[in-house]
């Protein structure tokens, strides 16, 4: 039965009571037959309307899914990071990153003269090692909050350790903040340079550059809070800052509920035509270190029991008669302090980063060129303490050091990439060290899919005048389960 017939019959019965047509007799059978026909028509069109509503609901769902995929894609492929739309079903996304490597070194020494490395900044174990395995759990708490946890199983050559890398809560648009504003509270890899926000498995090389190893112990993930704001401009502009306890390298020794460090940052970027994009950022990380040595220091007193962090600044002369800021230099020289001492005082780290992405064919999944670099400048004022033979000595510091790296990666087919990186750090002022350490890395990797990658890398490190190290690294990275797209 077609729509025209239904319309004609409906119109006929609508005007029937008002028509002056001759009366005629109709049998009961005819009346019942007509009623039945009308009921059948009504049921048929109600079913059609119901099916159309179901089809409309399916189309809306498909559009929502597509929009979510687009948001994730832009956060990975474009200069505009966007804000991923997290699902509110309260079912957490669970994933794991399996990582391992084989390493061969030509030198037994991995220290960097003039710098005290944290536990994470060391070169790692030789031979076969687990590397770092991550367990991730994330979900929307409700319409206002998103939660994320990352636990790492790390093998640093002296046994497997369980580390809580991230555990934070982040506001969603439903929280009611101005559009583009996000607050994150807990433990996270905070915004400080380009790589710091990314987990190591997302890096383009099997290890991190010398500046990250020296200045950030591979990554700064203290406990604190951060606010960021993406401005409503035609090009990408993001500004923000954070406050932190100061437990993590390059700081140490948070006491009680103290806030011992803070950060600030500003990033801008945009697209160049349809096939390339860029971003540049400036960052500041400022705080107070107390007994900072290798690994993660804790407690305001250092391991030698020293408490008065202002003593050196006030011209303090220690119990052994060694002056500090007045120019006294003992027979041991400065190098030992910078290489093995524990630092107490103010430390400030500046950073500038740049990233350029070009897709020659317009599709980054086919071919892609990545150019990236960062520059760090660390300015410190305080003193180093060093114990030898039961004697505690001090050396005043008012200066700092700087370093940088630059790298390029070329994806010449959907599964193959090659890359090169150069990094260098400059020895601290007044350290008495003439050599400035540098490292060269070249790599090639193969990705069977977006969930698996195998990488071969060669490093040549010249860390001291008589200290060279040639390294071979073979790495695998496998992703299981849900894992959010990485930022630009």
Offer a quick outline of the entry.
This protein has two domains: 1-16 and 27-77; 93-481, Porin (Beta Barrel), CATH 2.40.160.10.
Describe this structure in words.
With 488 residues, the chain is an alpha+beta fold. The protein has 2 domains: 1-16 and 27-77; 93-481, Porin (Beta Barrel), CATH 2.40.160.10. It contains 4 helices and 17 strands. A 16-stranded antiparallel β-barrel has the order 1-3-4-5-6-7-8-9-10-11-12-13-14-15-16-17. The model is unreliable at 18-24, 64-86 and 295-332 (pLDDT under 50).
Distance between the termini: 58 Å
Order of helices and strands: HHEEEEEEHEEEEHEEEEEEE
* Large-scale geometry: elongated
- Radius of gyration (Å): 32 Å
User: How many structural domains are formed by the residues?
Assistant: 2
For the largest sheet, list the strands in their spatial order: 1-3-4-5-6-7-8-9-10-11-12-13-14-15-16-17
Q: What is the CATH superfamily label of the largest domain?
A: Porin
| Extended strand count | 17
Assign the structural class, choosing from mainly alpha, mainly beta, alpha/beta, alpha+beta, or little secondary structure: alpha+beta
Low-confidence stretches: 18-24, 64-86, 295-332
Number of helices: 4
Largest sheet: 16 strands, antiparallel, barrel
CATH topology of the largest domain: Porin
Descriptive terms for the model:
488 residues, alpha+beta, Porin, 2 domains, 16-stranded antiparallel barrel, 17 strands, 43% strand
């Amino acid at each position: 039965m077609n729509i025209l017939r239904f319309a004609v019959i409906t119109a006929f019965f609508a005007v029937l009571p008002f028509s002056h047509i001759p009366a005629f007799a109709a049998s009961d059978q005819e009346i019942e037959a007509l009623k039945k026909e009308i009921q059948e028509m009504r049921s048929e069109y109600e079913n059609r309307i119901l099916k159309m509503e179901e089809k409309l609901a399916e189309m809306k769902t498909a559009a929502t899914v597509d929009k979510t995929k687009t948001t994730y894609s832009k956060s990975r492929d474009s200069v505009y990071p966007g804000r991923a739309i997290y699902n509110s079903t309260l079912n957490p996304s669970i994933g794991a990153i399996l990582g391992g490597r084989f390493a061969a070194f030509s030198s037994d020494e991995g220290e960097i003269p003039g710098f005290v490395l944290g536990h994470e900044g060391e070169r790692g174990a030789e031979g076969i090692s687990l590397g770092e395995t991550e367990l991730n759990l994330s979900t929307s708490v409700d319409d206002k909050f998103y939660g994320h946890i990352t636990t790492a199983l790390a093998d640093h050559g002296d046994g497997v350790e369980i580390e809580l890398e991230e555990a934070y809560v982040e506001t969603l648009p439903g929280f009611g903040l101005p559009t583009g504003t996000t607050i994150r509270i807990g433990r996270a890899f905070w915004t400080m340079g380009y790589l710091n926000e990314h987990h190591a498995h997302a890096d383009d090389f099997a290890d991190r550059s010398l500046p990250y190893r020296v200045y950030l112990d591979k990554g700064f993930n203290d406990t604190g809070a951060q606010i960021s704001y993406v401005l409503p401009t035609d090009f990408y502009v993001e500004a923000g800052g954070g406050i932190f306890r100061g437990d993590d390298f390059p700081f140490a020794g948070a006491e009680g509920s103290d806030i011992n460090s803070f950060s600030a940052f500003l990033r801008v970027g945009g697209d160049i035509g349809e096939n390339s994009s860029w971003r540049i950022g400036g960052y500041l990380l400022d705080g107070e270190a107390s007994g900072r040595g290798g690994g993660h220091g804790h407690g305001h007193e250092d391991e030698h029991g020293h408490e008065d962090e202002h003593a050196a600044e006030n011209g303090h002369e220690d119990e052994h008669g060694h002056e500090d800021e007045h120019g006294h230099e003992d027979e041991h020289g400065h190098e030992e302090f910078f290489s093995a001492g524990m630092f107490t005082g103010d430390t400030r780290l500046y950073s500038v980063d740049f990233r350029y992405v070009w897709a020659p064919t317009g599709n980054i999944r086919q071919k892609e060129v990545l150019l990236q670099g960062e520059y760090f400048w660390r300015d410190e004022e305080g003193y180093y303490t060093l114990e030898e033979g039961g004697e505690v000595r001090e050396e005043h510091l008012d200066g700092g050091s700087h370093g940088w790296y630059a790298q390029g990666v070329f994806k010449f087919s959907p599964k193959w990439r090659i890359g090169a990186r150069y990094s260098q750090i400059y020895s601290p002022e007044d350290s008495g060290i003439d050599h400035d350490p540098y490292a060269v890395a070249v790599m090639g990797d193969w990705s069977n899919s977006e969930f698996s990658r195998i990488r071969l890398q060669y490093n040549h490190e010249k860390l001291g005048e008589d200290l060279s190290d040639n390294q071979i690294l073979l790495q695998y990275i496998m992703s299981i389960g849900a894992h959010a797209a990485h930022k630009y």
